[in-house]
Amino acid sequence: MREILQRCLALSQQAGEQSGAAQRATLAQLAALLAEAMPADSATAGECAILQLDLIGYITGWNDGARQLFGYSAQQMQGQHVLLLYPDDEGDSGVDELVSQADGSFGAATEVLRRTSDGELIWVKLEQRLHYDAAGEAVGMEVHVRKLDEVLSATDKLTLHARIIEDSDQGVLITDAHERIVSINSAFTRITGYTQEESLGKTPDLLRSGVHDAEFRARVRAAMHGAGVWRGEIIGRRKNGELFPQSVTISAVRDAHGRISHTFSLFSDISVHKDAEARMQRMANYDALTGLPNLCLLSQLLGQALTEARRTQQHGALLMIDISRLGAISDTLGHEVSNAVLCEIGQRFRHALREADVLARLDGHKFGIALLHIEKREHAAIVAQKLLATLDEPIVIDQQALQLSGHAGITVYPEDGIELPTLIRHAEVALNKAIRSIEAGLLFYSEEMNQRAKEHMRIEGELRQALLNGELMLYYQPKVSLRNGRIVGAEALLRWRHPVRGLVSPGVFIPVAEETGLILDLGSWVLEEACRQVRAWQDAQLIMPPIAVNLSARQFDSQLPARIAAVLERHQVQPEQINLEITESLLVRGAESVIAIMNQLRAMGMGLALDDFGTGYSSLAYLKKFPISTLKIDRSFVIGLPNEESDCAIARAIVTMAKQLRQEIVAEGVETPEQMQFLRDLGCDQLQGYLFSQPVPASEFAAMLRDGKRLALGARLPPD
Ligand code: C2E
Ligand code: MG
Ligand code: MG
Questions:
Q1: Each residue's pLDDT tens digit, 317-360
Q2: What average pLDDT does range 470-486 have in this prediction?
Q3: Beta pairing, strands 171-176 & 260-269
């Protein structure tokens, strides 16, 4: 109260020194303060219960306020002991205390529980003083009783609020109109690490983490500037540099003129909740045993990929793999062993997959794999096969070697469906079919794909045998000069003499070999065989033009030059005798390492030809980067010559370009004299095609060389 009065006094003095609007404003502030102070005092005074007691606690006086508060009339209470008003468990020691603490004036108030006439317990505030007789002897006592919730004075309120703020678990930060910190509580220091001395006078930027964008900060500032209460989460920075999430309420306080005098923020450190949230998030999305994603996360990721695939028409697949015999292992060796097996399988699968593939553990013995980008649908079967193959090696748990196996169900999108539930159902259908079937380890959902996969696997198996059984051979197709009609080279083309199916086209088995990696073995065999043949021909005194060998992009690694050098060395063949044909897919990979390998091969003395030119994505500018000596125009552009307008334009552009790059040009698949004439007029260097010869066995090619077979250029010219 005294404080309020002092402030009133100061305001009235201030008003006396002012005039006009400023004075009116100060007076308004004064009026507000008085209004705040007055009702509290007058109201409580009227309601105050006053009890008169003798020194041992008997009631000698009971006013109307006491009647209203306790519900007993003065008549009822005269002569009663004050203990009647005490709760049951409080002894009469309270009375002695009352007396002993009292003196002639009302001193510090005490807050106690008392009982009313209808048994209700109420918190009251007591103030007492002693009465004295003329001789100065204490003769009795006057006790003022106020119900507690009615007796908070403005000052009490202020103290109480200050106390609450101080003791609060929430950090409190109060700034003035200039955004300087004017008050903080101890929770602020506990949470942020900054003491009063370190924070007062600074701005709240003291806690700025720097992670929020300008728009977010503008919203917070708007609240500080009075745009209304703002509640939200802010990342703050503690004194030790650590970032922490806080749940914050920010509000502005206005003075009597409506100007913002202060802002306050209340905040709590919610890092603990955030950790818990992250843990819950983990539990919701990951399998507790293996730590792999669960069905929920797999579905989320696949769902996103499907949304994208609808737009891009990209292929993807969902695989489900069920591990057999796990139930039996669990029954006989215990749950822990089967759990350890599942963890090991999870690791093997993860290891075998690419990073972008999603591996999840579904319920029980099932794993789910989402291949979000595959080039061809068949690739899904290769991945499934690779995963099942990881089970071939026994899993050793507690020195026991356990042999496991599995089945896989595969569904591909968008062909089998583009909705998540459909795909999951289809993968399950395929898996259940695979489990029931006796022979199939893996099955596609679509029958057509199963046929293709079967064929694929049959070819792969047989091709492995073919390598061992010597069913492979090389045919040679001559390249002839368009200047003189002479044989100036030949391309070695792989042939497979299948014992039952006869001659199998490389168009059938090369793609399978590429996908399975078998191409590496095939490629080595081709190189070896071509060099052996060249050596044999040279030994037979044949004058040999260079022989071109096709290389798969998969063969193209940093060891390739060394491998080729070793083969050349073994057969005593000069590098100039061998050309290498590569495809555009290798260039698209485009890395510097590819160029480095090419340079090495060129430095060894070998020619490099770019095969099937025009079917890929190479541009002229792009092509310049690569040390290519020969361009082979793809057969698909030769077919339309000389009648197809666009083919003519393409052929013309390719030849012009190759000439600029000083590359030799070979036209592939030339079948007619008209095609030859057109290409010759364009300035093409060589042709390769049925017009001169199909690919033929080595002996036939040697005969052509020996006989000096030539393309009759002039004779085949069409009449003008
Ligand atoms: P390629 O390297 O572009 O070979 C040219 C293909 O065109 C050969 O088919 C050849 O027989 C065919 N051809 C040549 N002249 C004509 C013609 O006038 N008309 C028609 N219709 N076709 C003609 P082939 O031998 O079936 O080989 C197909 C593809 O298989 C080759 O295309 C090549 O990409 C691949 N290939 C063949 N042998 C090997 C090999 O040893 N290693 C690798 N990596 N791939 C090979
Ligand atoms: Mg070729
Ligand atoms: Mg070609």
A1: 999 999 998 888 888 888 899 999 999 999 999 999 999 999 99
A2: 95
A3: antiparallel
Q: Domain check: are 340 and 477 in the same one?
A: no
Same domain, 497 and 583: yes
**For 313-390, where are the alpha helices, taking DSSP H only?**
326-333, 335-352, 378-389
Instruction: Please classify residue 468 by burial: count the beta carbons closer than 10 Å to its beta carbon, then call 0-12 exposed, 13-18 middle and 19+ buried.
Output: exposed
Answer yes or no: is the C-beta of 505 below 6 A from any ligand 1 atom: yes
Last residue of a domain, one of 445, 472, 498: 445
* 310 DSSP 8-state letter: H
Query: Could you tell me the distance, in angstroms and rounded to a whole number, from the CA of residue 376 to the centre of ligand 3?
Result: 22
Ligand 1 atom closest to residue 583's alpha carbon, by position in its atom list: 34
Same domain, 93 and 146: yes
State which residues form the domain around 14: 2-37
In sequence order, what E strands does 290-437 have? 315-324, 358-361, 366-374, 395-397, 400-402, 405-413
Asked if residue 94 and residue 60 are part of one domain, the reply reads yes
Which of 475, 509, 510, 687 maximizes ligand 1 atoms within 8 Å of its Cβ, making it the mutation to test the pocket? 510
Query: Residue 216 corresponds to which tokens in the numbers above?
Result: 């977010």
> Is 450 a member of any domain?
no
Query: With a 6 A CB cut-off, is 507 part of the ligand 1 pocket?
Result: yes
Kindly state the average pLDDT of the residues 359-386. Answer: 92
Q: What is the DSSP-derived secondary structure letter of residue 416?
A: T
**What separation in angstroms does the CA of 611 have from each of 432, 549, 630?**
45, 11, 9
User: In the chain, how many domains are there?
Assistant: 5
pTM of the model: 0.55
What is residue 323's three-state secondary structure?
A: strand
